[in-house]
Design goal:
Number of strands: 2
Strand content: under 5%
Helix content: 55-70%
Structural class: mainly alpha
Radius of gyration: 20 Å
Largest sheet: 2 strands, antiparallel
Number of helices: 13
Strand order of the largest sheet: 1-2
Distance between the termini: 28 Å
Shape: globular
Length: 265
């Protein structure tokens, strides 16, 4: 059975020597790094261009901000922090630089520093929902769930169609074990963006926590349809099938998760 703690619950089943894990819900960021190979190649080319432009005009705030974004998107978070810091030295009070530096610091797990950056971004751009969205993300990471809900409420107030904010607010409620209250947030996120695999997955976890395994299977299946290599969704769906006594289907899902896991190593 799934624990309501939702924290890295081990599935007590081994498949081809690999212990499968049940993962916590997915927390979403306003902007994630890029993984597509062709896009990464293009971004690295843009970084090279910005290197030249910065060499020619070392006080260009715009070029530091652009390079910071490109560095963030290719996963160079240290470089992104450095460029945003330089931009802030050249132009203090730039909300974008604070917000982007905070995002990079989150990926470096420097959440306290990121929270300071997001708070500064909100101070200089109080009508920008992204600042509240990002601070909510960092607050979830630091287990300040009530604060996260308050910030995500504000992000939704400023941008009522902000699907990621609804999903993260549902997640914060899930972490507080308010599973029934979380479901409408996941519903709204999916209504706004039906192709939102992570929202389907997170709603599946909320259903699991309510022991509604039939609906959790429906949600995990949709997440898998949208994202066929979704290892966690296969694992969690296997657990749901197992909870319903369908051990053969559960074993098939655990096998698929294990195959994907080995492929990605």
């Amino acid at each position: 059975m799934m624990s309501k703690q939702l924290i890295f619950i081990q599935v007590m089943m081994k498949f081809t020597g690999c212990l499968l894990l049940l993962f916590i819900p997915v927390i979403l960021f306003a902007q994630d790094p890029v993984t597509d190979t062709s896009v990464l190649k293009m971004l690295r080319s843009r970084i090279t261009d910005e290197n030249f432009l910065i060499k020619m005009a070392p006080n260009s705030v715009e070029d530091y901000l652009k390079r910071a974004i490109y560095r963030y998107e290719v996963g160079d978070f240290t470089g992104a922090v450095e460029d945003n810091t330089t931009a802030l030295k050249l132009k203090p009070g730039n909300a974008d630089a604070y917000s982007n530096r905070g995002m990079a610091r989150c990926y470096m797990q420097e959440y306290d520093s990121a929270l300071i950056d997001f708070t500064q971004a909100i101070w200089f751009a109080p009508k920008d929902p992204v600042g509240y969205m990002n601070r909510g993300y960092a607050e979830i990471q630091t287990k300040s769930y009530d604060k996260a809900i308050t910030d995500l409420d504000k992000a939704i107030e400023l941008r009522p169609n902000y699907a990621k904010a609804y999903c993260n607010r549902g997640l914060a409620k899930t972490r507080l074990q308010n599973f029934k209250s979380a479901l409408p947030d996941y519903d709204k996120a999916i209504e706004l963006y039906p192709g939102f695999a992570e929202a389907w997955y997170d709603r599946g976890i909320a259903c699991d926590s309510l022991k509604d395994y039939t609906n959790s299977i429906i949600n995990y299946s949709k997440a898998i349809e949208l994202k066929p290599d979704y290892i966690d969704a296969f694992t969690n769906r296997g657990n749901a099938y197992q909870a319903l006594g369908d051990t053969l289907t559960a074993k098939a899902d655990f096998g698929k998760a294990n195959t994907l896991l080995m492929k990605n190593r």
